[in-house]
UniProtKB/TrEMBL annotation:
Family the UniProt entry places it in: Belongs to the pseudomonas-type ThrB family.
The protein's name: Homoserine kinase, putative
Membrane-spanning residues: none
EC number assigned by the record: 2.7.1.39
Organism: Microscilla marina ATCC 23134
Domain annotation Aminoglycoside phosphotransferase: ranges: 33-252
Domain of life the protein comes from: Bacteria
UniProt GO molecular function: ATP binding; homoserine kinase activity
Amino acid sequence: MSTVNTKKDLLVGQIKQVLLLYDLGVLKNCFQLSFGYANQNYRIDTDQGSFLYRVCTQQPLPLIEYEVALMKALQQIDFPTAYPIAKKDGGFIHSLGEHYVMVYEFYNGHEPALNVHTSSAIAEAIGKLSLLPNAPRYLKKNAIHLDTCDALIAEFERAKNPIPVLLEYFKEQTNYLRPLLRQPLPEGVVHGDCFTDNTLFDGNQLVAVIDFEEACYDHLLFDVGVTINGFCFPDNQLDSVLLEAFLTAYQRQRLLTHEEWTLLFAYIQWGAHGMITWHLQNNLLHKHHHSQWQRVQELMHRVQQMRQEETQINQLITQIAKRLKNATNRE
């Protein structure tokens, strides 16, 4: 018997054992969906339907418990996501060897095209998340933080995969953003990683925002900046039409403050720079990974291009803010 078949048989046996803890029927099929840094995802089909079987390979139990508590709060506001399913005993998390397992609702969908409809749909969802009641109950520091950047910079001299152009960029951009990111802004729960691959769409209709592993309590503008990076940069260029569609839809849920409009340019950069930080955290500093390095190069170029076009982009943001303010006043 091949090693592949042995692993598949072991997985099937484990899933069958876990399903005994639920009222979800008998396993018929399972298919691997993704293998990420923090989890392994499988679609499982039973005689009662399809579900997502998630193996948490990196997250410690307190962070998984945080995510479950947050999901319960999101359910109260009918947020569009795939929710974890409770076991027969009412719990959500099952210990399986060194890892933890949860079962979620499964939704069919696809990664969206970038257009005004998908940008508007995701903006309304993120705006709804920004208004989550009792947000201070879900305090958790963002893994993407200036402190993280400084720790990585301190580690540069020990890097096993030194990339001089990246290290030079990272130091300069972190210092450029530092005073801007320290200014007080409205806070709340943020998704923290709302790129297109963490959403499911049916055509232009949003089905679900998924993967809340990076969710935390931070400046709400962080989520705005990250999601703009995910939905308003076709061909790695900021699209003014998509940006205006996004901001118009977000404002239907929550109005940005004057300070947030002023700092939006910086937070769009922070969204991209934060993702570079994530890749450095996830071992690019010490081990070359071709697809990671390609993505980081793309994000570096994006930030550098924005810096070169700072005056034009800030003028665009000011114009959008003025149009939206005038529209609100007319209403």
